[in-house]
From TrEMBL:
PANTHER family: ABC TRANSPORTER PERMEASE PROTEIN MG189-RELATED-RELATED, OSMOPROTECTIVE COMPOUNDS UPTAKE PERMEASE PROTEIN GGTD. This is ABC transmembrane type-1 domain-containing protein. It comes from the Bacteria. It is found in: Cell membrane. It is a multi-pass membrane protein. The keyword S-adenosyl-L-methionine does not apply. The lineage of its organism: Bacteria, Bacillati, Actinomycetota, Actinomycetes, Pseudonocardiales. GO terms for cellular component: plasma membrane. Keywords: Cell membrane, Membrane, Transmembrane, Transmembrane helix, Transport.
Amino acid sequence: MLFHVAFGLPFAVFLLRNFFTGIPRDLIGLAAVAVPVAKPAIASLTIFQFLRVWNDMLVALVIADQDSAPITVALRAQLRQFGTNIDLLATGAFLSMIVPLAVFLVFQKYFVQGVLAGSTK
C-alpha cells in the first residue's frame, strides 16, 4: 500500500493543485464552499488512482505470492498454460473489467466535470 501511495501522491498533488489554482481565493477561505466545488477533481483523482492500482500488474508479479495473486496474474498464468483456450481467457478478461467499468460508470459525471474543469475561463 505504501508503494501505491508513494507513486500516486505526486500525481494527486499535481492534479489538485492545478484545480485549486483556478478557484478564486475568496472561495478557498470558506471550506464549506470550496470542498463541494472540488468534488469533480477529487472524483477524477479517485478514478485515476483506482484504475492505476487495479491495473498495476508489475507490483502484483513482484510482491504478491501465488496464493493471493490478483486476477491479472492469474490470467497471465492461464495464457502460458492454455494459450489456445480463448474462451477461458476472454471470460477472465471480462470479469476483470467489471469492477473498473462499474467505478467509471458510477463516477462518470464527476469525471467529465473534473477533466473539463480548467478548460474554459
